[in-house]
Amino acid sequence: MVHVKDVLKSMEYGPAPEGNEHVLAWLEAHKGGFGHFIDGRFTDPSASKSFKVANPADGKPLAQVAHGTAQDIDKAVAAAGRAFKGWSKLPGHERAKYLYAIARNIQKRDRFLAVLETMDNGKPIRETRDIDMPLVARHFYHHAGWAELLESEFPGYRPVGVCGQIIPWNFPLLMLAWKIAPALAAGNTVVLKPAEQTPLTALAFAEICREVGLPAGVVNIVTGEGDTGAALVAHEGVQKIAFTGSTDVGRVIRTATAGSGKKLSLELGGKSPFIVFDDADLDSAVEGLVDAIWFNQGEVCCAGSRLLVQEGIAEKLYAKVRARMETLRVGSPLDKSTDIGAVVSTEQLERITALVAKGKEEGAEVFQPSSIQVPGTGTFFAPTLMTGVEPASTVAVVEIFGPVLVAMTFRTPDEAVALANNTRFGLAASIWSENINRSLDVAARLKAGVIWINATNLFDAAAGFGGYRESGFGREGGREGLYEYLADDGAKAKGKEAAKVALTAAPSPTAQIAAVDAVDRTAKLYIGGKQARPDSGYSYAVLNPSGKQVGLAGLGNRKDVRNAVEAAAKAEGWGAATAHNRAQILYYIAENLSARADEFEARLRAMTGVSKRDAAEEVSLAVRRTFFYAGFADKHDGAVHSTKSRHVTLAMNEPFGIMGLLCPEEAPLLGFVSLVMPAIAAGNRVVAVPSARHPLAATDFYQIIDTSDVPAGVLSIATGNPGELAKTIADHDEIAALWNFNGSVDAALVDKASAGNLKPVWNGGARNWRSTDAQGREFLRRATQVKNIWVPYGE
Ligand code: NAI
Ligand code: MG
Questions:
Q1: What is the pLDDT of residue 513?
Q2: Is 763 in the pocket of ligand 1 (CB under 6 A)?
Q3: Measured in angstroms, how far is the CA atom of residue 234 from the centroid of ligand 1?
């Protein structure tokens, strides 16, 4: 008797092509080329230089698209600037209706958009249809909600202005949605540049904007290449840049925007670990791997591209993976039974090919399924598994961005964590184990922005997405993503107040810093829980406003900062301590400061010449501010996002690790306390540079720290020239975030130097430190990064 299951084994797949007549007709209607979408109209394509867009699956041309120049960018930014006036003033409810209409229209045209995306990018129709398009619509719906709720949920915040948005080719319409939906919801207007490889769905989206009657200039699309993107980044009329793409270009953009005051979010590359423990459900893990690395041809920033397997099950898992790879189907992206489509471009195919060759050269064993014949035309690459890979080899380190998995083994959970974190990136991670305790323990120890437990590549508009370390900064999606498109309204008002304060202060602090050779009488630096002589061996005179010397402070240098970071690295336990413990220590600090109020008051008077009343007020406010963050330490909660059903998506606020703080020149005690307390309350270890002109309140503070049970290395203080110390801190790869509130420090210099490890920089600007505006959630938010952990439940 013939069994159905035997028939299934020998049955051939029949072709199941998705129809593309609608798309062909649309392309035919635009055979004269596509112009830019500026100020609600398409520009004349014949008036511009243009470039060809082709279907990677067969190499055939699809369209001719305008190459945006600096003039085009200029027009688009001007249109967005004009539109901002009206759009930002619209009630949230009105903006919500537009976003809702966009979502509806995307759904109405979703088959058209899915086919167009597949033809433009080469990804399988099954994915554009079932993943990209539903997520695109979901993003606009979700943000229609935020537009409605903005005023009540984000009091004190305002839209940033004109946003320049640059996106890559791997999820063209989805990345557009991730950028445009939150920007518009928050009341901004945008100029978006799609990737040169895949501009077509963005142009179709522009048509939707017209259909729903979106006011002219709110969304502008300028097509082009890297130079077009660079012109957008450089434009003075742009207040924020949002970029997704390679880490190299992210770094270029960090440098190009340095000192401009433009808000910046970067979503960059990754080399995300996929960790399989020996108690994992291996069959599920294999299916997970298919989604982790063979989804979207592996051209996914958060792809699980590094398989880390516990030694005992490695061979067994590899055998299962190889068997599963044999059943993957590579071929026409428009065929509904295709698993792996075409790589986006010849350039990308060459890059992948070269990296796999390099892996082989470096000793990896390369497996490609024998059943798979890649099509002769088009840019296809067979799914690939590389085993026997050394952790330091090229393919284990660089992002391949193709359907290539590299595998390594580990013995213990500690080793798994060490291997997983052994990367400059930190975008995502996937953990497979039936032991929930172990999974959550590992999740907490991984340095990555998104973590999936027994799952992979889950996305939802309600959860933030974004990386740690060189995977960039900022989040997309959810409440945390909205902050990227909002400015702290208070900051402006605070700035005005603070300007008054600053006027009363003396000229540049650095002018005053002249080395004196009198180390013995000098207030020392405070490093790793001990007073330390400055490495330079020099000090500088601290003068009061009438020019009289009131003391000497150490002239800290690069070496001192390095020592402070080393000490901080050893104090890792601080972030893992309970918030309650940290709160207790902050209370203790406040208590000890209060007990010595007279000394601090006298010091402030002698240094700054303020009245007794003012000095007393500064000390008492410093005590209160410390109390404030002690109280807040266990209340800066994360969230459980409402994403998919039967999932808890935990948004945890995690400390950055080691932070550099450049304290303001004014309010030498209160300014210092206002930065240090939220940073350490949130669990960071800190290297603080106090006011250079008036450093002695901070150096007196050592005694408070010494008597308040603050673990060594949690707070180090380096006095000296703020500009020089700022540069060293910004340069330092182990310092994960930097706040600059010192008006004498060049923001451009700090931004530029921080491009090395892409640390987020908060150039906080002037504040009135005595006001309660100089404290609050904003400081805690800036002292933490959100880690989203997805835990599915059910058996
Ligand atoms: P890319 O970073 O050069 O391109 C991304 C976008 O940036 C495109 O719109 C491009 O036109 C624009 N761009 C390029 N240079 C620019 C500049 N100087 N200023 C402003 N905008 C600029 O990425 P590319 O060359 O397409 O791919 C190279 C590698 O980058 C890939 O192999 C992959 O490893 C990685 N990549 C990562 C992505 C991610 O989602 N994290 C997405 C795309 C690429
Ligand atoms: Mg490039």
A1: 57
A2: no
A3: 17
18 is known as an active-site residue: no
* CA distance linking residue 152 with residue 104, whole number of Å: 25
What is the Cα–Cα distance from 444 to 544, expressed in whole angstroms?
48
Structure tokens at 474: 């900022």
* pLDDT at residue 133 is higher than 80: yes
Q: Counting Cβ atoms within 10 Å, is residue 585 exposed (0-12), middle (13-18) or buried (19+)? A: buried
Q: Which ligand is nearest to the CA of 169?
A: 1
174 Cβ contact list (under 8 Å, min separation 6): 132, 135, 136, 139
Residue 504 is predicted with a pLDDT of 35
pLDDT tens digits, 513-530: 555 545 456 789 999 999
Distance CA 119, CA 579 (A): 52
Q: CB under 8 Å to 468, separation ≥6 — which residues?
A: 426, 427, 447, 448, 449, 736, 785, 787
Residue with tokens 């130079």: 227
> Taking 50 as the threshold, does the pLDDT of residue 505 lie above it?
no
pLDDT digits (tens, 9 = 90+) for 10-31: 777 788 999 999 999 999 999 9
Give the Å distances, CA to CA, from 626 to 244, 602, 604, 669.
38, 20, 18, 12
Per-residue DSSP letters for 574-612?
A: HHHS-HHHHHHHHHHHHHHHHHTHHHHHHHHHHHH---H
> How do residues 315-340 score in pLDDT, each as one tens digit?
999 999 999 999 999 999 999 999 99
Q: Which residue has the tokens 């090919």?
A: 353
Kindly calculate the radius of gyration of the chain based on its CA atoms and give it in whole angstroms.
Answer: 28
Residue 63 C-alpha from the chain's centroid: 33
In the chain, the amino acid numbered 740 is N
How is residue 75 written in tokens? 């027009």
Ligand 1 contact, 226 CB (< 6 A)? yes
Q: Please tell me the distance from the alpha carbon of residue 545 to that of residue 530, in angstroms, as a whole number.
A: 30
Catalytic residue among 163, 209, 299, 301: 301
Residue 506: what pLDDT? 38
Q: Of 148, 267, 724, 778, which one is the catalytic site residue?
A: 267
Query: How do residues 232-277 score in pLDDT, each as one tens digit?
Result: 999 999 999 999 999 999 999 999 999 999 999 999 999 999 999 9
Which-ligand-closest: CA of 268? Answer: 1
Q: Which residues contact 557 (CB under 8 A, 6 or more apart)?
A: 534, 535, 536, 720, 724, 725, 728
Alpha-carbon separation of residue 260 from 190, 213, 240 (angstroms): 18, 34, 10
Given a contact cutoff of 8 angstroms between Cβ atoms, the answer to whether 551 and 696 are in contact is: yes
Q: Which residue among 171, 178, 244, 249 is best mutated to probe the pocket of ligand 1, counting the most ligand atoms within 8 A of its Cβ? A: 249
Instruction: Give the span between the Cα atoms of 531 and 718, in whole angstroms.
Output: 10
The conformation of residue 403, written as its DSSP 8-state character, comes to S
Residues 6+ apart with CB under 8 A from 64: 32, 33, 34, 45, 50, 51, 52, 53
pLDDT tens profile 392-409:
999 999 999 999 999 999
Q: What is the pTM for the complete model shown?
A: 0.95
Indicate which ligand has the atom closest to the C-alpha of 171.
1
- For the Cβ of 751 lying below 6 angstroms from any atom of ligand 1, the answer is no
The one-letter code for the residue type at 170 is N
- Which three-class secondary structure state does DSSP give residue 446? coil
Ligand 2 centre from 196 Cα, in Å?
10
Distances 739 to 346, 660, 662, 676, 762 between C-alpha atoms, Å? 43, 6, 6, 10, 5
Which residues lie closer than 8 Å to 748 by C-beta, 6 or more apart?
A: 258, 259, 260
Instruction: Decide: helix, strand or coil at residue 772.
Output: helix
Tell me which DSSP letter residue 652 carries: E
Integer CA distances (angstroms), 457 to 176, 290, 322, 406, 794, in order: 18, 11, 21, 18, 18
| 267 carries an active-site annotation | yes
